Amino acid sequence: MNMKTWLIFLPALAALLWLGCQTNARPAADNESVYTDFSDRDFKNYWYQGLAEITSYDLQQARYGEIHHGHAVAVFVTEDFSAKKQVKLDNPESAGNDRVPILKLNLSKKFNTGIYPYSMMLSVFTPVDIRNYPYSLKTTMSSQEWCGHVFTQMNLRGNEYHLTGLSYFESEGDENLDIKKYTLEDELWTRIRISPENLPVGEVTLIPGSFYSRLRHKEITPATARISLTENNGIMDYQIFYPEADRTLVIHFEKQFPHKITAWEETYTSGWGPGAQKLTTRAVAKKTLINDYWSRHNNEDLGLRTELGLPLE
């Protein structure tokens, strides 16, 4: 095919790149390019079937110098995202170059500390084409408990992440600041699912995780991490160690596609004063469902929570 003919067909090929989630999702066509190497049919067949992957986890959460039982849920789903507005597109077919296919993670944790509960959620929006979009476009984190609630959002703007923080704590208050662009710890979860062979290893500067920063009341600022990736009987152990904070996060995932996250551990000092001690938060996968959860909102669908091993809360 000569260059002139190629240019004639280029708009049609671009139109075929329409990908989505929820009611907009559909299987990928033969010549769609969505994966980092632009050839992986397994990736396209798994992530573009119009469904989400939902995994429940048993959670042992460190807080206030003790371990508290709870549960976590990781929802991975593809969406069409607006590069400009950094929100999910309502009409991706008319968005043109503003449309960016992403893999979204919604990771929620729920656990009780004595009389009162914690409910935390992290959302990460990572472009599937990591060659042209090497950084996630956006993250949000919210935390609610009986004292109040906190919200943090980071948006990629050029060479910086713009952070908006809202908190009921006077010392934290409302903030708007810019952080130099580095890989986000929070996006390592989505990168495992997209392209584990391209995960950063060695001595790396990361922006630490939102959950950790929230629970330790730490300012979100880039930090040096030492990262390794090893294999143990078909399970990959991805270890991130922050020397300055003396904190370690290990994410375990399957070597074989689709690289499901089977467990994780996070070790750091929990609590303050005499009650502070080094503890390990642990989460272990229980059950995975593949379905269109956004349409499973009727009372008759409550049985799906039981299937996931989740309480009917």
Please give a quick description of this structure.
By secondary structure, this protein is mostly beta strands. Helices cover 12% and strands 47% of the residues.
Query: End-to-end span in angstroms?
Result: 59 Å
Radius of gyration: 20 Å
Can you list the strand order of the major beta sheet? Answer: 8-7-6-5-4-3-2-1-15-14-13-12-11-10-9
The proportion of residues forming helix, as a percent range, comes to 10-25%
Order of helices and strands: HHEEEEEEEEEHEHEEEEEH
Nearest-integer average pLDDT: 89
Figure out the total of helices: 5
Q: Note the overall shape.
A: globular
**Beta-strand percentage?**
over 45%
* Major β-sheet annotation: 15 strands, mixed
How many strands in all? 15
Main structural class: mainly beta
How would you explain this protein's 3D organization?
It is a single chain. This protein has 5 helices and 15 strands. With 313 residues, the protein is mainly beta. The longest helix is centred in the N-terminal third of the chain and has 13 residues, at 3-15. A 15-stranded mixed β-sheet has the order 8-7-6-5-4-3-2-1-15-14-13-12-11-10-9. Strand 14 (261-270) and strand 15 form a beta hairpin. The protein has helices spanning 3-15, 41-47, 188-194, 210-215, 303-308, and strands spanning 52-63, 66-82, 99-113, 116-127, 138-145, 148-157, 160-166, 175-180, 183-184, 202-207, 223-232, 235-242, 247-254, 261-270, 277-291. Mean pLDDT is 89; it is low at 1-39.
